Amino acid sequence: MPDLDFTTNTHLHFLEAYINFYMTTPTFDVKTTLQRLLIVFTDKIATPANCLQFFNADWCPLSQEISFSHDIETIWVLQRTLTVTSIKDVQVSQFIENLGTQVATKGFDNNKIICDHSNTLQTLTRKTWWTLAEAIIGFYNLYQLTNSKVYYELATHHFEMVE
Q: Sorted alphabetically, which InterPro entries does this protein's record hold (predicted)?
């Protein structure tokens, strides 16, 4: 993709790395970096319905591609960031819940298995191992946050598919 400078996936991995670093070195500077990465998600990557995936150097989206699997991964990574750092961020928390609703209503095939990527909102058919793993973690995390049986059933369903 020409002019590709930033991706959601890369920023998810930055967050994961900094979360682990913060757990071993809980300094103000590391926490500040995590807060800045959260702001990148809310201000640049997030839309009301999902996460945009690809950006140029000015953070202009390069496509409207949807990745429900990255969206479900985003849910648990953002929540873990809030939990580990004790950051209270209403905007991030609300985004997590909204994103969970979107994935739970639009991100599946006819068998309620999470799908990977799409350039449209049409039903998807591509599935990969990591999407199933992210779905287990993400939906179980949403269940813990909301106590919604729907999320528990989705986590269990994806676990059974992996098993």
A: 6-hairpin_glycosidase_sf, 6hp_glycosidase-like_sf
